[in-house]
Write a structure and sequence with these properties.
heterotrimer; A mainly alpha; B mainly alpha; C alpha/beta; A: mainly alpha; MetI-like fold; 11 helices; C: alpha/beta; D-Maltodextrin-Binding Protein, domain 2; three-stranded parallel beta sheet; 15 helices
């Protein structure tokens, strides 16, 4: 048993280290003095300096963040409503409904992107940030639904019933009891939908208006013609750093709450 | 004024009352926003593509604008073209190969990892490790793939390290090979397998496993008879989350594979974009429909033979 | 007139020299550079017509001095948007979908007849572009648009072979046979197996094979197309792969991954010389990189200004073309990105002007092929390309 445990431990941490090798390379090269992305030729902060004057990178980063945030909010609202509706009221044909809602998840993204682009063209809807958002929601709302539904199915209705017998009406119960109980699943759904939207390239590429880059699209258009500047690495390093600080603070906060 | 406001209030409260009592109305209220959104921005586009693929949407020019006309004579031309094109089946096989390898590879790595996280770490460590796993995802997908590309470059770290250790004589190039594509794909999709599996394994009652031991089961038997069946919903969810996008993946083969392979995602993209105009749209649509059909069949068979309980996180 | 031109020639070179620093041999007096800057400013704000507030330009990446364009927009109070595409296919798809509107695009000549036929680009008013007079005659009234009703030349070049001399060990590349003669174990491709790339663009790759086989590069003959596909399939095992410009730019200078590449001349010029998207750089960065048009000939491409049918700011598009065609402006763009802009040829420093990698020498003209693409041809070719890709 001990041997198996040790092997397991070694395996786990080896994989964790391997996961971080490319990230480490990226961070290291953000400090590279030369333009080479393969050979390290000395330490420099040049990439960081050029990053701060690169308005287009920041613009695209900003676009990525705000569109993703709207996508998350809309997807969560739609997802919660659908998951609650399907699991709680079990309308006739709810299994079919359930399968239908999940179709966007199993359809390959390239197909969704192409069909949406053609549809928008044929109907004559001009592209705007709205079309990007709606394209993401069409995938992310079902994703949120899937995660939340699992939580709804698995839980105890007693709390809700207790609230109702204590005189709360259904809407109050939904807001005051159901939603807080769902929080862990909601957070998980929020995180996954955010990451998906923030990282999406193909769908955004087909639905973006003129002059509107998100970070993945910006990076791709740079990459495709041989000009990935290392300031992108610098930006990624900063993002990782910020994410680290945020998560650290959140964990500290949670610890404090749990000790109280 | 006051009377009007009263009227509105009473109307609203009557409406609220009705909603509260009418189960069907409630269902509609909860479901319609999501369903309408999906219908308009997912299913309708899909139907449009389906019509295009059967040559049932025709574009005609009227003056300076185009109008679309629905034709009721379906035509299999584009499907025939798709199936008779040389290489179509090879392209599908290539994608199947990439996707299967990625799914199995991520599964083999994820399960022991999830097991270790769930059973060998305390709560604080678990959170910390989860954080470590999520962190790389703040770095854009393309940047991560690029970092791997530089790693595998003949002047890159892997090659120079191997040379320094005397394992190889000259610089070796891992990029441009299928191995590089497969490694990068496993790397990129790992988290989509790991998280769902961890989600279910974490909820497995430890006492159950200990009970199996006290009843004299070997560790292997416990794994096969107790842990794996309990982890099944997570494995199913993970497999779908990995297999489907991996099947459509075409950016990784371009960046690290030297662009020598031609997965189905690339084929659809090319049909759509390289053959200009409605012909390309129809060809791409037909290819997409066949591809979707394959995915749906595969998913159905998978559910049928492996199980339907899906759990995400 | 001519004395002013001579002065400008010196001054443009001087600006380049300053950007480079001492030692480049282009030093000019500060006063001359100042007056050049003065002229750039003057040109920028001298549109002379009522302009719209916005200008949306859709261009290839790394294909103009963005700083200079920014300045033009600022001086005219125009809100500027520049988006980039990576292939003609992408541009055509965008125009076909029609869900976004650009005021000016730069398609390659091969695609222009079908764009005109489909009504996706609109007529250009040459009266609003007096600077067309600076375009050398052989770029006007060409086959794809005989009366320049719809288009005006932007840049041009060839698709041929680039290589890293240091890695070739004295071998010399002179013909497409060096890349295609896989049956001969002594051929370049066999001796440098795995170190050769073709472009990602299917049409360019198939054109190269067609030229080697002596077929027309717009062949619709399925036997010939099969020969082309077979040749490319035979070549494939000896390739590193099909490379993007990005991969070529990154790897050709060191040559460790591959060192012989089918490529576009301007991209290679951008490797040989230092190049930028915002400033004039004139140093030679990689003298070991060579570019050769094979003896069988090569594809010539011509990118042209065109105004999409759904453009909203048509005056701005005309004003922009006119500004761009000013010889001084064109020259600065060439000195920045190292692609040739014909209107500026006289003001480009000699070293660039005489470099066959940038400006295609006239002696090559009759070895260059140009073709028109139709959707039928694209579809047929795509079928054979698929055969190559999945082999």
């Amino acid at each position: 048993m001990k041997v198996v445990d040790t092997l397991l431990k070694i395996f786990f941490w080896t994989v964790m280290v391997l996961i971080y090798v490319p990230i480490a390379v990226m961070v290291a090269f953000s400090f590279n003095a030369s333009r080479s992305k393969v050979v390290f030729e000395g330490f420099s902060l040049e990439n960081y300096i050029s990053l701060f004057s690169n308005e287009r990178v920041w613009g695209s980063f900003y676009n990525s963040i705000w569109t993703a945030l709207i996508v998350v909010v809309v997807s969560l609202i739609l997802g919660i409503l659908m998951a609650y509706g399907v699991t709680r009221y079990r309308p006739r044909g709810s299994t079919i409904l359930d399968s239908l809602i999940m179709v966007p998840i199993i359809i390959p993204e390239i197909v969704e992107a192409v069909t949406l682009a053609l549809f928008l063209s044929i109907v004559g809807i001009p592209l705007s940030p709205f079309t990007i958002i709606i394209g993401h929601v069409a995938f992310d709302a079902p994703l949120a639904y899937l995660i939340l539904k699992a939580r709804f199915q698995g839980w105890n209705r007693e709390y809700e019933e207790a609230a109702m017998t204590l005189g709360a009406d259904e809407i109050r119960t939904f807001v005051k009891v159901t939603i807080p109980l769902m929080m862990p699943a909601v957070l998980a759904a929020a995180f996954l939908t955010f990451i998906w939207s923030y990282d999406d390239f193909i769908k955004t590429f087909f639905t973006r208006p003129t002059g509107f880059d998100t970070l993945p699209v910006y990076i791709w258009t740079r990459v495709a013609r041989g000009r990935v500047e290392l300031d992108i690495n610098a930006l990624s390093t900063i993002i990782v750093l910020v994410a680290m600080i945020f998560t650290y603070l959140r964990m500290k906060l949670e610890e404090k709450q749990s000790t109280i | 004024m006051a009377a009007g406001a009263d009227g509105v209030v009473s109307l609203l409260s009557r409406l609220a009352d009705r909603i509260r009592r009418d189960r069907r109305l409630k269902t509609i209220l909860f479901l319609s926003p999501g369903l309408i959104t999906l219908a308009v921005f997912f299913f309708l586009p899909f139907v449009v593509s389906l019509l295009l693929s059967f040559d049932m949407l025709v574009r005609e020019r009227v003056g300076n604008t185009f109008v679309w006309i629905l034709s009721l004579q379906p035509n299999l031309e584009y499907y025939i073209k798709f199936f008779t094109s040389p290489g179509t089946s090879v392209s599908i096989m290539q994608s199947l190969y990439y996707a299967s390898f990625t799914t199995i590879g991520t599964l083999l790595i994820s399960f022991p990892m999830a097991y270790y996280m769930a059973f060998k770490l305390d709560r604080r460590r678990k959170n910390f490790v989860l954080f470590l796993i999520f962190l790389p995802f703040w770095v854009n997908f393309i940047i991560r793939v690029y970092a791997i590309r530089f790693l595998f470059h003949p002047d890159g770290i892997v090659s120079t390290t191997l040379m320094a250790l005397g394992i190889t004589d000259g610089p070796i190039s891992i990029i441009g090979t299928d191995a590089a594509v497969l490694i990068t794909m496993v790397y990129s999709y790992l988290i989509f397998m790991l998280l769902p599996i961890y989600g279910v394994v974490e909820k497995i009652n430890k006492e159950l496993i200990e009970a199996a031991y006290t009843l004299g089961a070997t560790p292997f038997k416990t794994l096969v008879k107790v842990t794996l069946p309990l982890a099944k919903p997570g494995i199913i969810a993970g497999s779908l989350l990995v297999f489907i996008p991996a099947m459509g993946e075409f950016i990784i083969p371009i960046i690290v594979g030297g662009g020598k392979s031609y997965p189905i995602g690339r084929l659809i993209f090319d049909q759509f974009i390289k053959v200009s105009g409605i012909q390309g749209w129809a060809l791409g649509s037909a290819a997409a429909m066949v591809y979707v059909g394959l995915i749906v069949i595969a998913t159905y068979l998978y559910f049928r033979f492996v199980g339907r309980e899906v759990t995400l996180i | 007139m001519s004395s002013r031109r001579d002065f400008l020639r010196v001054a443009v070179a001087g600006a380049a020299g300053l950007a480079l620093g001492v030692g480049a041999g282009y030093m000019a007096r500060q006063g001359e550079v100042d007056s050049l800057n003065e002229r750039i400013r003057e040109l920028a704000s001298r549109a002379g017509v009522e302009l719209e507030e916005e200008f949306n330009f859709y261009n290839w990446t790394w294909y103009a001095n963005l700083e200079l364009i920014d300045q033009w927009a600022r001086e005219n109070g125009i809100r500027l948007t520049i988006d980039h595409y990576e292939s003609n296919d992408e541009l055509v798809a965008t125009l076909e979908l029609g869900t976004v509107s650009y005021d000016l695009v730069v398609p390659s000549a091969s695609y222009i007849p079908s764009l005109i036929e489909k009504g996706l680009i609109q007529k250009i008013d040459l009266d609003k572009i007096p600077n067309v007079e600076y375009i050398p005659e052989n770029f006007m009234g060409r086959e794809w648009d005989p009366d320049n009703e719809y288009t005006v030349i932007y840049s041009y070049g060839t698709t041929a072979i680039a290589y890293n001399e240091d890695k070739l060990g004295g071998d010399e590349i002179t013909s497409w046979g060096d890349l295609f003669d896989v049956d001969n174990p002594d051929s370049i491709i066999r001796r440098h197996a795995g170190k050769v790339t073709m472009l990602e663009e299917s049409i360019e790759v198939m054109d190269a094979a067609a030229i080697y086989l002596g077929y027309p590069i717009d062949t619709m003959d399925e036997n010939q197309l099969q020969d082309i596909a077979d040749l490319l399939i035979a070549q494939k095992p000896y390739l590193y792969g099909y490379a993007s410009t990005e991969a070529i730019m990154e790897n050709l200078p060191t040559g460790s991954l591959f060192y012989i590449s089918q490529a576009w001349n301007g991209d290679i010029a951008g490797i040989i010389y230092e190049s930028s998207e915002t400033e004039v750089l004139m140093g030679i960065a990689n003298p070991q990189i060579k570019y050769v048009v094979p003896e069988e000939g090569a594809v010539a491409w011509f990118d042209n200004f065109a105004i999409p049918a759904n453009a909203k700011n048509i005056e701005n598009a005309h004003a922009f073309i006119n500004w761009f065609l000013d010889p001084v402006i064109s020259a600065i763009h060439t000195m920045t990105v190292k692609y040739p802009f014909p209107a500026g040829i006289k003001y480009v420093p000699e070293i660039l002007r005489n470099d066959p990698t940038i400006f295609v020498p006239e002696s090559l003209y009759d070895k260059l092929y140009w073709t028109m693409l139709t959707p039928e041809l694209e579809e047929l070719w795509q079928r054979y390309w698929q055969q190559v890709q999945t082999a």
